[in-house]
Amino acid sequence: MLYLWIKAGHVVAIIAWMAAMLYLPRLFVYHAALPAGSAQGETFKVMERRLAKAIMTPAMIATWVLGLALAWMSGAYTQGWLHAKFALVLALSGLHGWFSRLVKDFAADRNTRSPTFYRVINEVPTLLMILVVILVIVKPF
Q1: 60: three-class secondary structure by DSSP
Q2: Can you give the pTM of this predicted structure?
Q3: Each residue of 67-109: pLDDT tens digit?
Q4: Which of 67, 71, 85, 126 is least buried, going by the fewest C-beta atoms within 10 A?
Q5: Alpha carbon distance 127, 134 (integer Å)
Q6: Can you say how many angstroms the Cα of residue 28 is from the centroid of all Cα atoms in its chain?
Q7: Rounded Cα gap, residues 59 and 41, in angstroms
Q8: How far apart are alpha carbons 3 and 67 in whole angstroms?
């Protein structure tokens, strides 16, 4: 029964993490289109910081902790599909770190990228998520 509770928590954490990872670059799209120091820009700074610190980072930590517990409890850590998933989640975690850096850059009015750049970057977490879901459901190897 504990395994199922951990699994449920893992799924909830993933949903929260992915929601933040998909929404934050969308905020960057709109923020990048504004002049530095504008009232709207200051609002975006607050939204970005709160999303990153209150939702995105805690959800990532919970995803990792609960996911590693599941891998250990189930013995799946020996399976190839989980190794591939682990690599993709590492990539997603690296993207998370970069997004966190971008939040700091926007907060200091140091953004140098266009809204179009962030529209493209917004698709990367989606692609990683699709690949992870395929690995978890299909377990191709």
Answers
A1: helix
A2: 0.95
A3: 999 999 999 999 999 999 999 999 999 999 999 999 999 999 9
A4: 126
A5: 11
A6: 14
A7: 26
A8: 11
Tokens of 107: 């907060």
Q: What is the DSSP string of 3-32?
A: HHHHHHHHHHHHHHHHHHHHHHHHHHHHHH
Distance, in Å, from the CA atom of 40 to the CA atom of 134, rounded to the nearest integer, reads 39
- d(C-alpha 14, C-alpha 19), whole Å: 8
Token pair in block for residue 69: 């517990």
Host H or E run for residue 118: helix 115-121
Structure tokens at 59: 């959800």
The label of the residue with tokens 């954490």 reads: 13
The DSSP letter of residue 122 is T
Helices 123-138, 80-107: crossing angle, 10 deg rounding: 160
Decide if 59 contacts 22 (C-beta within 8 A): no
Pure H helices in 33-109: 39-50, 57-74, 80-107
Q: What are 105's two structure tokens?
A: 């850059």
Place of tokens 């902790």: 65
